[in-house]
Amino acid sequence: MAVGLVVVIVFMIVSTVIGNTAICYIIYRVRRLHSPSCIFLVNLAINDILVALFLLPFSIATTASNYVVVSKTGCDIIGFFQHATSAVSVLTLLSVSMDRYLAILTPLKYKGWVTRNRTVLCIFFIWFYALLSACYPLLGWSHYYVFPGQWLCESNYHISVSFTYFKMTTIYFMPLVSIIFIYISILRVALRHSKQIAREVKALRQREMAAVLEPELGAQVSAAVISGQYCMRKPHSALRADIKTALTLASIVGVLFIAWTPYIVVNLWSSHTRNYGTELLQSIVSGLYYSTGVINPYLYGYLNRIIKREFKTIWTNTRRSFSQIRANKIQQAEITSRKSS
């Protein structure tokens, strides 16, 4: 079992680093993606990379050795950054949901409210709060501990139930309720938008029929139809793009909360029953908890047309480069064999 878990963790580390690094590179390369929501996604990707590079390797050592290989101080450091990165993930997704909410429900004020500097400032406060809340167990409100089967150090749910509820509320329940409210509001706008398009298409057809039945007004009606068609479709296309982006981000949010829910439920159950559960159960829920770093970049790349195209370009160029290197090696070997013969 230990060998299998180590293989899974190594795969998660490599996939997380490659996928999130590609997302950061694509967003940096494509100017169309230099938007506030994509800046938040870069922050999320960097956070996932930090987890993969600096936290998950400790889980390999713990899993392979079947005992805690870090000291109390080391466990405090790991638990501190585990708490902080978890808070950053959720608060970043909450922020990007708010960004889409403002873009769709207040489109005329959005550009004035949401600027690049304010987005960077928001990310700064996200990290500040995440690091601050991670300090509480170090100051005596609970403490960090490794439960049997868990991959990393976690706050001890048996020492302080109050901190358990504080953490679950601020990192899970409140963001979840807020995000659900935001996307319900966005869904209502999307439904109104589709009904409005249907009404305008119906009105457009009636105008065209009127032009056919009254040819003497044909030129005027045609001009009105073309003008109205242009004026109506321009904002509709922009709103449709915003809604599509919001639904894409909603899928990422949904994956995170689906992956986190078993971990949260097991820990809440543990805090009340004082039963850690089996090591297999802890390993499964821990694996799901950290799997979002692997899933997010590929999910977003699959759902976003621009990023998907850039992913294909990078993959094609990488394959071409390896093929060229291989061809050069074969050619060099043939030249060497000819000279030796």
From TrEMBL:
InterPro entries: GPCR_Rhodpsn (IPR000276), GPCR_Rhodpsn_7TM (IPR017452)
Subcellular localization(s) per the UniProt record: Cell membrane
Domain G-protein coupled receptors family 1 profile span(s) in chain numbering: 19-300
Taxonomy of the source species: Eukaryota, Metazoa, Cnidaria, Anthozoa, Hexacorallia
Family: Belongs to the G-protein coupled receptor 1 family.
UniProt xrefs under SUPFAM superfamilies: Family A G protein-coupled receptor-like
Domain of life per record: Eukaryota
Transmembrane segments: 6-28, 40-60, 80-98, 119-139, 171-191, 243-264, 284-303
Any Pfam family: 7tm_1
Protein name: G-protein coupled receptors family 1 profile domain-containing protein
GO molecular function terms attached to this record: G protein-coupled receptor activity
